[in-house]
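Reagents: none. Just compute today. UGTPg34.
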Amino acid sequence: MDHTEGDIELLFQDLKPDVVLFDVAHWMPMLARRLGIKSVRYDITCSVMTSYVSSLARFRENKYTEADLMEPPSGFPSSSIKLSNREARSFAKVSVMEFGSRIRFVDRQYKCLSECDALGFKTCKEIEGPFAEYLGSQFGKPVMLSGPIIPEQTTSTLDEKWEKWLGGFKPNSIIYCALGSECNLQKDQFQELVLGLELTGMPFLAALKPPPGLESVESALPEGFEERIQGRGVVYGGWIQQQLILEHPSIGCFITHCGTGSLSEALINKCQIVLLPQIWDQIINARLMGIVLKVGVEVDRGEEDGFFTMESVYKAVRAVMDKDSEIATVVRANHAKFRELLLNKDFEPSYINDFIEMLVALLK
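Predicted 3D structure written out:
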């Protein structure tokens, strides 16, 4: 990406844009300024993640050790969002890792945030407002929110095999589990997950990738598992129509890796949410959803090894699905509130209009 700077400059000289939206190209603000173009650092991940790791307070004090990253930076809007030892260790490693033209990730982020003309986020104030504003105040930049860009109603139909299988169960009774296109659980964790699904006693559909070194999900299943769950459970290794699956009335619970796209899809549907983050921004997303917004329950992991067990998967699912539990009452009420907000027909257009107005104001 960094090697494209010269090509981008030639392109800008030809197109003569008024404003450019960029993410991690740290050279973009200076290039844009040189050509009289405004630059907006636009983040399609969560603002809470950027504000936790890349705040000016953390950068000035160079607080990127494992111990530093376990705690939020000075002035951070939530003291409840924290990292475990293992998570902070991983964050610390990535933060000081060199990317592209031999520049540390944190330095790249700092240049993007400090040299741009404005900060843009694919979110809304109702979900992440305090975190976006915190980052804006830290760097002295106007903050522009485009809204979460809710997936539009698809015109396609669910594959017949899934429609038939899902249709064989009662409404709100099935667990759907999907951990994204990039997650390959190790075999032991893969087995703990599917055994946890079995332990719930509920029907389930798990869309997972095979563990590293294995060619199929079937080869990773515990001995006797397929026979025990026959008729009520499916572990599938191919691509699946997630948006349509989540919209099906039989889906009652969604175990997600907490990618921003999956969380948006979860919030606009009626399924209860279980949070099973795997890496980086997903972890902070899970804390936001589980601790701050209280719309889901995160699966417990070991403090040092980060492993989850079949029992912890079972516990999280039962916590959101047991209608008589206090936790379920809270998350269901909060989820319903955000769902109503996000599906309001005027919600998304109002954010898009405000975003455009702020872009125009930036040019004056």
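DSSP finds 17 helices and twelve strands in the chain.
Action item: order primers for follow-up constructs.
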